Predict the 3D structure of the following.
Amino acid sequence: MKEEAIWKKYNELKIGEYPFFKKEDIDVKEQGLWRYWRYLPVDKKDKISMGEGFTPLLPIRFGNNQVYIKQEQLFPTGSYKDRGAAVLMSVVANQGIRFVVQDSSGNAGCAIAAYAAKAGIECEIFVPADTSEAKLAQIRMYGARLTKVEGSREDTANAALKAADSQYYASHCYNPLFLEGTKTFAYEVFEQLDWASPTDVVLPAGNGTLLLGAFIGFKHLKNSGLIKDMPRLHAVQSAACCPLYEAWVKGDEVVVATTGTYTLAEGIAIADPVRGSEMLQAVRETNGEVVKVSEEEIGAALLKCCKMGYYIEPTSAATIAGLLKLIERGNNKQKKWVSLFSGHGLKSTTKMMSFLDDAH
Ligand SMILES: *Cc1c(COP(=O)(O)O)cnc(C)c1O
């Protein structure tokens, strides 16, 4: 099987067993997520870093409910993908690899291109021909080779997989080293909540790179005896493209590919997620839920956040719409909600303009 073969190939780069998480072992002299380098697959002296991570966790009020929103739009490239890219590209650089390929419809491509530039590694990013201009410009400005692929997102992935036969595949969905970076989200939340776990975490679900990273991170904290229960991990999808949601409501264990339609939340419109069954498992094992949100709900959440001063990518608004949907069900007395702004609004100027045109 294609998927298994790829897993094997990348698991060869040993991720290793980490020691139990201990508060005393956090290296507070290191910037950002590198304070947790003892639990990362690369030594701090070998890091490729632009100071990413340790984003603020802000208490924000929505109606009667106070929730904590992690400001993941504040990363160097404008999305939380830098967590995965920084760690993955650090290992890659340390292995002496000089060229990587990657495919993405946007932010993951920007992040890999940025950290490749920082490390002096060449990269080729495959994108669907209709990727938004701002992200294409960003990828090219970092000096990456950009290859546009006509057809679907899957055609792009196949083109990258073919190139990956002979080059290192720095994929955010396949390569497990990416999740080693995104797991730091959980460590930071735990530390920022004063060494406590949230009860509920609401995360975007396209390929699930943050969902799975958070699962790994909280699990590490639990195995280390620092939190008693795993927080419930909830996954949000756009109703316009929601294969995970469909498998979830049917009680299935595998995610079947769908065909998506246009959505404001382009960043989570993944019709055939690579790690679909792992995502389902993370939600089920923690007693979370998969929710889907409509275009109206995404638009309303986007306006709500922007009017509070938070200029976020429309994709990020989908997660907030899901958070609001879950909160509205009430019964929040004992709950401590955590969610995030996943990407920066400045990436989506064209989309914002047409959103404004449609709304007024
Ligand atoms: C990548 C991304 C997501 C979704 O992440 P997945 O790993 O595909 O689940 C959400 N928001 C933004 C801004 C992103 O860049």
